[in-house]
Amino acid sequence: MKCVFIIVGVGGTGSLLARDIPKLIIKQPHKMVLIDGDTVEEKNMVRQSYQSHDIGENKALALSTKINTFYGNICEAVDKYVTNKEIVELVKSYDGYIPVLIGCVDNDKTRMLLEQTYHDLNDCIYLDSANSEYDGNVYVKAKIQGNETGVLRSEKYNLSQDIHPADKSCEAQVAEGNIQYLVTNLKMATTLLEHISAIVHGSAKEGVTIVKRFETVHY
């Protein structure tokens, strides 16, 4: 099974994940795509996979350039915020690949868009990551040849349409000296990487993975 791993959001969790996926897919037929319309800022140096020379560059472009420099031409970038229709069209351009949609975003509005994308695709594996300061979770649902397993986040609770559901963004709290988000983002990226490793080896683990401080559980 050939997969195209599409990471939507390459900030705190997504950039750390994107940094390590190539180690799982090098010399294999898989591809990866990074999607983000955000620009690298100085404050991103604390907990994201960017360096000072990336400041002012688009995040997806900056990170994909690094990946391709080290691992060959395995990563594409979309340097804007995309619609559901645009992601579906992107997937269609990868004929013969199973899309693995990976949401690493911090708002429910985009999660709703990604869930709609999942519904609009014939085949798809969708991993949705979310975290607070200490805790996080990953929802995994797969639809392959008409068979569906796993769960979407909206099947457990109602998603809001708030652009920023938290009172303060992760970046704002990091700027105030709260570095716990760095630890939690690393744990979330590692959890996603474990799921991706399972997919690469043909055994996707649908369901929910709960990540707590000093604890990780999948059910």
TrEMBL record:
Residue ranges constituting the THIF-type NAD/FAD binding fold domain according to the UniProt record: 6-175
InterPro entries given in the database record: ThiF_NAD_FAD-bd (IPR000594), Ubiquitin-activating_enz (IPR035985)
GO molecular function list: nucleotidyltransferase activity; ubiquitin-like modifier activating enzyme activity
Nucleotidyltransferase recorded as keyword: yes
Superkingdom, natural source: Bacteria
Keywords: Nucleotidyltransferase, Transferase
Transferase keyword on record: yes
Annotated protein name in UniProt: ThiF family adenylyltransferase
Source lineage: Bacteria, Bacillati, Bacillota, Erysipelotrichia, Erysipelotrichales
